[in-house]
Amino acid sequence: MKAIYLVRFGKPEEAFEMRDVAIPAPSDSQVRVKVEAFGLNYADVTGRQGMYRDCPPLPCVLGYDAVGRVEATGKNVKNVKAFRFRQHWQLNIALHTMPHANA
After folding, report:
1. Spatial CA neighbour of 50 closest among 19, 12, 18
2. What pTM value is reported for the model?
């Protein structure tokens, strides 16, 4: 899959790099979401500028709000089924731990 990495702080045209990455398998308590749309928000913009204190270490994939379909679930995820619905999540990378998804 393609991922847009923040590789340096600064102007948008200089800060990002597109990379090919393997599609990750979810661990026991994670789900994998195929993102269909995302929001660009304050945390993303200030992260790119190097001014967001919770920005992960570089290089990183930014993204805190997304809508998509669950593609795969870990074995301990009980109440979220793959391909069943679209939902909004607050996310921070392509593979996410969702504590509220465990029964």
Report:
1. 12
2. 0.71
